Amino acid sequence: MKNTELDALRSKIDQIDTDLCELIKERQSLAFQIMKAKKGSFPFDPEREEELIKKIVNMGLNKYLVEKVWRQIISSNLAEQKAFKIGVAGNNDEIKSAYSAHFGNYFSTTYFSSVVSLLASLEKKDIEIGFIDSESIYKLKNQTEIKVNFEILANVPLYKSINQQEFKIIKIKND
Question: Which residues of the chain are modeled with pLDDT < 50?
Fold first, then answer.
């Protein structure tokens, strides 16, 4: 038996999906134009990303949904601007999941067995960005024998649940 009410609702959802796809394509086109306007400057702008996600959350959408969806859209556009080489300190499921939620599968990724090896790779410029757990950052700041001049670009995730671990995105400071 045909359910016309269900069919009508599904038809409306199908139209919304089509509209969303068209808007995402338009957004990607604008991101490409932004890449040209940046004229080769470092395209990763976590502050702008955070502002954007918070603005969208303030429009009434679920903060976890917004962060997951927009992170993928942003990362896809970022990958079009620059093929970053990103290092991840650790290889456990939690860091892999957090990294994937933030950056997706759009970048060249190297997993390091230790924070020290990730930092060495950053210094040698084998990678451009590091993804590391917050606890390791805290330990690094208290160790005097490690002298890597890095800066924290972002905290991940922006919205975290109670038991969720926090991570940092780092890069070597430009002198």
Answer: none
CB neighbour list of residue 77: distance below 8 Å, 6 or more residues apart = 27, 28, 31, 32
Question: What is the distance between the alpha carbons of residues 157 and 83, in angstroms, rounded to a whole number?
Answer: 22
Question: Residue 115 corresponds to which tokens in the numbers above?
Answer: 């924070």
- What confidence tens digit (pLDDT) does each residue in 11-55 have? 999 999 999 999 999 998 988 888 888 777 778 899 999 999 999
- Work out whether the CA dihedral 22, 26, 31, 32 comes out positive or negative: positive
Backbone CA torsion sign across 157, 46, 76, 53: positive
According to the model, what pLDDT value does residue 144 have? 57
Compute the C-alpha angle 135/139/140, nearest 5°.
Answer: 115
Query: Are the CB atoms for 63 and 159 separated by under 8 Å?
Result: yes
Contact status, residue 78 vs residue 43, Cβ threshold 8 Å: yes
Q: How far is the C-alpha of 112 from the C-alpha of 157, rounded, in Å?
A: 21
Residues 6+ apart with CB under 8 A from 37: none
| Residues 85 and 112 sit within 8 Å (Cβ to Cβ) | no
Tell me how long the chain is.
175
